[in-house]
Design brief:
- With about 575 residues, this protein is mainly α.
- It is about 75% helix and about 0% strand.
- It is built from 37 helices and no strands.
- The chain has helices at about 5-15, 20-25, 30-35, 40-55, 60-65, 85-90, 95-110, 120-130, 135-150, 155-170, 175-180, 185-190, 190-205, 210-220, 220-225, 230-245, 250-260, 260-270, 270-285, 290-300, 305, 310-325, 330-340, 345-360, 365-370, 385-395, 400-415, 420-435, 440-450, 450-460, 460-475, 480-490, 500-505, 510-515, 520-530, 540-550, 560-570.
- The longest helix has 17 residues, at about 135-150.
- It starts with a helix and ends with a helix.
């Protein structure tokens, strides 16, 4: 029997069993079978066979839909795309949502792979799905319409638009919802002029649909449609619609429009924002529903540019301060995030907002500020305000939330660079060194990892005079083996400065670790020494390091011997 026959026969055998998992595994080999038997037999035999085998099993249909996503080349390319029409129609008509969604994704990808000569296959698929009496195929038709429109010749566009209108007016809410979800992508495919004429009226109709679920999806497409239009067209045709959505009776609809603000607002331009939309947006931020307030707060990060400084300071900043007093943590967290989205552009205006967020009782809110402190390096804030904010941040180095402490420690190099080494020595050094003895490993690790950035921020002279002696004191004062490992870890990160003099100065720390009575410390010291040796003069390494490492090659601990050997290889 030929190899081709073996592959097809094996697939038949594996798909004939009752065990679904075995049948799934068989379908996962579909591309291999197609490649083995060739494009001709794949078109004439394989596709019909697998279609008949999976039609009664939702899980198998989903897997088949996944496997067909990159299948077009295996049937001979776009010229033979029509051979996949039947199987695509069958999968898109699936009643189960998770099967149909995968089928829509696969079919859209397949349609994008067609060329002008095979575009009729896409038209056939959408025609059959639209004409089906059962609603699931019509749901799929609405979802694949943008892909079909992109691929179809201009002569077919009028018919496709008529079909899409019919889907938008369908009796089944789920069909209208699917069509609504395609409005943004279809608008981009049609172009501004056609979109204004044909799609904006459909968007307005669906945004005012009786079914809440349809309105929610349609509102979510407003931003995509607005982006596809020139600002003047967006203001003329969509402004009234957006304002209606912001006061819809359903909080889910208001939440949906709030989620799109960051994308939608720039499409209208600054003048329209200032004159028409600023106050409705701020009203959303004061909505009775916490989810709406949080969504609005999260998406206000463009208002500093669009509203202008005067209106931003007078109207937006007070609302952000209000939101930071909200009883719901997610609202306060979203407000803090929105403030950081506007840094460093508007840091001067937002200093009080950031200070308020840093004082929040919830660690998640504080982290929204702390996680992006590097932005403050390029901020427009005055020196006094910066010092006040930094002082607030530094106090959080002893916060009860370990992630807050970690964020503060990681931010120290960029945060304190502008304040200079004297300020750091006086106000921050003690807190920083205390982080090396934190109860949480992630905080200790952060303290070690910022050694080199601190050296770069304050200079090698400061590192030699202040930081290296402090690292040595860590080892001198260590009472437990983990404290000794931390001191060695800090010393190891001096290597990242790529300065031989500093590395030589800190050499005593890992050398003492090599003599430690605890094997784990000796192991860590060997690993640290392996890194340090890259930056040490050979004469110094041979004189001080080699004898100790060679002695450790006879250590009683097998791991110590292994890592000592690795370190020796670096000499």
């Amino acid at each position: 029997m030929s190899g081709h026959g073996d592959a097809m026969d094996l697939l038949r055998q594996d798909l004939s069993v009752d065990d679904t998992s075995e049948r799934v595994n068989a379908l996962r080999r579909l591309k291999g079978v197609a490649a083995s038997i060739g494009a001709s037999r794949t078109r004439s035999e394989l596709l019909d066979f697998v279609k008949d085998q999976v039609v009664d099993n939702d899980e198998l249909m989903r897997v088949l839909a996944e496997e067909l996503e990159e299948f077009l080349p295996l049937v001979g390319g776009p010229a033979h795309g029509a051979s996949m029409v039947e199987i695509m129609v069958m999968l898109c008509g699936a009643e189960e949502t998770y099967v149909r969604e995968q089928a829509v994704q696969t079919t859209s990808h397949y349609i994008d792979g067609l060329d002008a000569s095979s575009a009729s296959a896409a038209l056939t698929i959408v025609q059959r799905l639209c004409d089906d009496d059962w609603f699931p195929p019509r749901i799929a038709a609405g979802s694949i319409m943008p892909a079909v429109y992109r691929r179809a010749p201009a002569s077919a566009h009028a018919d496709l638009k008529a079909k899409f209108v019919s889907l938008c007016r369908d009796d089944a809410p789920m069909v209208r919802r699917a069509a609504a979800g395609s409005l943004g992508e279809l608008s981009a495919a049609m172009g501004p002029e056609t979109a204004v004429q044909d799609l904006v009226p459909l968007l307005a109709m669906l945004v005012r649909d009786d079914q809440e679920s349809v309105r929610v999806v349609a509102v979510g497409q407003v931003a995509d449609v607005a982006v596809s239009l020139p600002p003047a067209s967006s203001s003329e045709h969509l402004l009234k619609l957006v304002k209606e959505c912001m006061v819809d009776r359903s909080w889910r609809v208001r939440h949906s429009i709030a989620e799109t603000l960051a994308k939608a607002l720039p499409a209208f331009g600054p003048e329209t924002i200032r004159s028409e939309l600023l106050h409705p947006v701020l009203a959303l931020a004061r909505d009775p529903e916490a989810e709406v307030r949080a969504a609005a707060a999260k998406n206000m990060g463009c208002l500093d540019e669009l509203a202008g400084k005067a209106m931003f300071d007078a109207n937006v900043v007070p609302v952000l301060m209000e939101l930071l007093e909200d009883e719901m943590v997610n609202v306060r967290s979203a407000s803090a995030q929105s403030a950081m989205d506007m840094v460093p552009r508007s840091t001067r205006s937002l200093m009080t907002v950031m200070e308020r967020a840093l004082g929040d009782e919830d660690g998640e809110v504080r982290l929204k500020i702390l996680a992006q402190l590097n932005k403050l390096a390029d901020s427009d804030a005055d020196e006094e305000a910066s010092r006040r904010l930094i002082a607030t941040i530094i106090k959080l180095a002893t916060d009860t939330q370990w992630r807050v402490r970690e964020s503060v420690i990681r931010s120290l190099p960029s945060l304190c660079k502008s304040l200079g080494p004297d300020y750091f020595n006086e106000h921050v050094m003690a807190l920083y060194m205390a982080a090396h003895d934190d109860d949480v490993d992630a905080v200790r690790e952060a303290a070690a990892e910022v050694v080199a950035p601190l050296c770069h921020s304050f200079g090698l002279s400061w590192a030699s005079e202040c930081l290296v002696p402090a690292i040595k004191r860590l080892l001198d004062n260590a009472k437990y083996f983990m404290q000794r490992i931390q001191a060695i870890s800090a010393a190891r990160h001096v290597v990242d400065t790529e300065n031989a003099e500093l590395c030589a100065q800190v050499l005593d720390v890992p050398l003492r670790g090599l003599e430690d009575p605890v094997p784990n410390v000796r192991v860590y010291a060997c690993r640290a020494m392996h890194q340090l040796l890259k930056s040490l003069p050979k004469a110094l390494s041979d004189a001080r390091v080699r004898p100790v490492l060679e002695r450790l090659m006879s250590d009683s601990d097998v791991d110590v011997k292994f890592f000592a050997g690795e370190a020796l290889q670096g000499l």
